[in-house]
Amino acid sequence: MTVHFDDLAAQRLEFAARSAAEQLRLQAAERHRSASRALESFRGGYARRFEQVVCIEAEDRARLASILDELAESVSLTAAAAVRERTRQHDIAEWQKYESGVNAHGNLVNAAGIAEGGRLVATGAGTGRLWRARPDSRAVVAAPIRVGFQARPRPRGFVPGGQSRGTTSARPAQLRGFAGRARAMNRDLEHEADRLSEAWRGFVQRCGWARIEGATFESGFRRLLSESDDDARWIERVATAFEQAGAGTLPTHSVSLAVAGGSPKMLARLLFTGAGRPAQVSTTWRALMARAPQAADALIEQYAHELAGLDGVPLEVRDIAARAVLDDIFDPPDDGSVHSGESETQRLQRAYERMGFAPGERSLKDFRADLDALRNEVLNAERMSRGEPVMLVGLGRHDGAVTAAIAVGDLATAPKVGVFVSGMNSNVRGIGEALPAFHSMKQNGEDMAFVTWIGYRSPGIGGVISQQRADAGSVRLVDFLEGITESRDAPVDRLVVMGHSYGTNVAAEALTKATVPVSAYVAIGSAGLKPGTEPGDLRVAERYATHAKRDNIAQIGVRSTALQYDYGTPPVTDESKRLLDAAVPRQDPRELPGFQVFSSEKTKKGEQVTMHNLLKPIDWQGSLGKPAQYLADTLDGTTATDEVGYLHPGSSTVASLLDIMNGAL
C-alpha cells in the first residue's frame, strides 16, 4: 500500500504549530503588564471579575501553547514513521524482485538448503549466488494524533446581587489601555491561527496515511481569540460607564448596566442575577422596558415565580406574576403548552422548586394549603373591594414558609400608604384578617392604599423572646418598602409602617436601617422591641403605640424576666446559656420617650379591643373541645362571637390608625 504522506505538508504544519506556540508564550509578559496597569486603580466586584478573566486567559493561552508543542511533536514522529514505512515497502519490493529472479534460474535448493522456512538462502557449490534476508513484513503504523483543546468561558457576567450593593472604582484610560493592547495581540495571534489552520488543512488532505483520532485545537484556538476579544469589549463597556459618569467611583450596579450595553437578553439576566437592591432592580427593569417594551409579557410567562417575589419590579408586574403562579397550579390552561399535561402534584412540585424551597423543607400538602388559602384570600379581598384595586404584590419563600403581600387601593399612585407587618403565629392562611380594616379605612380615605405583609417566617409563642426572626424579617421588610417606593412614578407623601405583636419588633428593626423615608411607626399590642432600643434608632419622625388592657398575650414577650437565670446555678449548659441569652426582657414601646400612646379601649371613635388577635379569636373549641372554649369565655368574660380584635373595623384602634394615616392623631 502506498504511503500517502506529503513530507512538505507535515513540515509546514510542524513549523506553524511551533511558531504559534512560541507567539502564545511571548505574549505572556506584555499581557501581564497591561493587566497590572489596569488593576492599579481598579477596585470592587468588577475588578475581582477582571482578575479572574485575566487568570483564565493566561492559563488557557499557556495550555494551548503546550498542546501545539505536542501537535508539532506528533507530526514530527508521524513523518519519521512514514519514512520508515516507505523504506520498508521499498525493501520488500526489492526482495520480491530478487526472489523472483532466483526462482527463475532454479537455484532455490543447494547444498546449504533453505534455512528458517526460506527466509535465509545460502550459496551452494558452483552456484556463486548469495541468498538475501527477507525484510520485515510487519507494516510501520503511525502513532495516532490526539490534540484536543477547548478554551474555557470567562466570568464576564454581572457581579452577583450581594456584591452589586458595593461600589467599583477605576481609571477608564487604564482599562482602555488594556483593551487596546489585548486587541493588538489578538490580531497577532489571529495570523498564527490562520497559518496553523491552512497548514492543518494541507496536512489532512495530503497526509492520509497519518492517523488522526482527535484534533479540536483549531476550533479551541479560535474560541480563545473570541473570548479575548470579548474581554476587550467587556472592559471597554466598564470604562464607558466611568467616562459617562465623570467619576472614578460608581455603584457596581451602574457598571452592570453599562456591561449589559442595552441588550435585552443581558438586561434580563441582570434583573435576576445581579441587580441586588430593589432600587437597582427597578432601574434595570426600566432600562429593559425602554429597550424592549414588548418583552414584559414573555418575561412574566417565563419567570413568573421569580418576578412575584422580586422587590423593585412594578407592582402590577408582581401582581400578574403572582396570580400566574397560582393559576398555573389551580387553574392551568389547556393550551398544549409544555406543562399543560402535568398533574396538580407535578405543578405543585415545580412551583415548590422554582420558589426556592429545599426538599423536605415544607410538605407538599402544607404548601398546597398555603397557596390555596392565599388564592381564596385574594378573591375575598376583591369581593370586599367595591371597585378598589386589589393586588397580590408579593409571593415567595422565607425560611421554609410561604410569604405574600396583598394591597388594597392603588399602591402605585396613592399619596398615603400604610404597610402592616404581621406578628406571632401569622402565616399566609390568615393574611385576610387585616383586609376588612383596610377596606373600612379606605372608605374614609380615597387617597390611601394599604398592604398586609407576611414576608417573613413568624415565630410561635415560644419564639417571641428570641430576636432571630425579627432580625431576618427586618431585612426582608427593608427591601419591600424600598421596592414599593422605587417601583412608583411618584413618591409616597406619607408612608406609615404598622406592626402587630412580634411584627412591631420586625418593623422597628427594619426602621433602624430603612433606605426610604417613613413618616410614622405604629406598635399595636407589641410583644416588645429589641432590648436597648432607643427612639432615635428608628429612622422615623412619628412614633405611636397602643395596647389593650384585655390583651393578656403581648406582655409574654415584654415581661420575660422569669426566664432570667444565674450562670452559677447548675446545671447550665452552653446551649441553655445561648437560649436564655435570647430571653432578656424586651422593650415595651409605650415606655420609650418620644412615643405617643393611644387608646385601644372604648372611645367615641370605636369599640374596646378585648383580645390580642387582629380579628378572629383563638378557636379553643376546635383544638381542645367545647369545655375549653367555655372556660376561655368564662375567664375572659367575653364570648368568642363578641370578641373585638385590634383590626376589627369597628375598634377604636382602627379609628386611631385612620387618624395616623392622615397625620391627625
Give an account of the 3D structure.
There is one protein chain. This protein has 665 residues and is of the alpha/beta class. Helices cover 49% and strands 11% of the residues. It has 19 helices and 14 strands. The strands form four sheets. The protein has an eight-stranded mixed sheet, sandwiched between helices. Strands 1-2 form a two-stranded antiparallel sheet. β1 (114-115) and β2 form a beta hairpin. It is elongated, with a radius of gyration of 39 Å. It starts with 6 loop residues before the first helix and ends with a helix. The model is unreliable at 108-128 and 560-572 (pLDDT under 50).
Give structural attributes.
665 residues; 3 domains; Rossmann fold; single chain; alpha/beta; Ferritin
Summarize the structure.
The chain is α/β, with parallel strands linked by helices and 665 residues long.
Number of domains: 3
How does the major sheet shape up? 8 strands, mixed
Given this structure, which CATH class of the largest domain is correct? Alpha Beta
Number of E-state strands? 14
Strand content: 5-15%
Overall average residue pLDDT:
87
Quote the distance from N terminus to C terminus. Answer: 105 Å
Name the CATH architecture of the largest domain: 3-Layer(aba) Sandwich
- Specify the CATH homologous superfamily of the largest domain: Alpha/Beta hydrolase fold, catalytic domain
What's the arrangement of secondary structure elements?
Layout lengths: L6 H33 L5 H60 L9 E2 L4 E2 L23 E3 L19 E3 L2 H35 L5 E4 L1 H29 L3 E3 H9 L3 H10 L4 H14 L3 H14 L6 H16 L13 H11 L9 H21 L5 E9 L2 E8 L7 E6 L13 H9 L4 E7 L13 H20 L6 E7 L2 H9 L6 E7 L15 E7 L8 H4 L15 H8 L14 E2 L22 H5 L1 H11 L15 H10 L4
Parallel strand pairs: 3-5, 9-10, 9-11, 11-12, 12-13, 13-14
Antiparallel strand pairs: 1-2, 4-6, 7-8, 8-10
Helix pairs in contact: 1-2, 1-3, 2-4, 3-4, 4-5, 5-6, 6-7, 7-13, 8-9, 9-10, 13-14
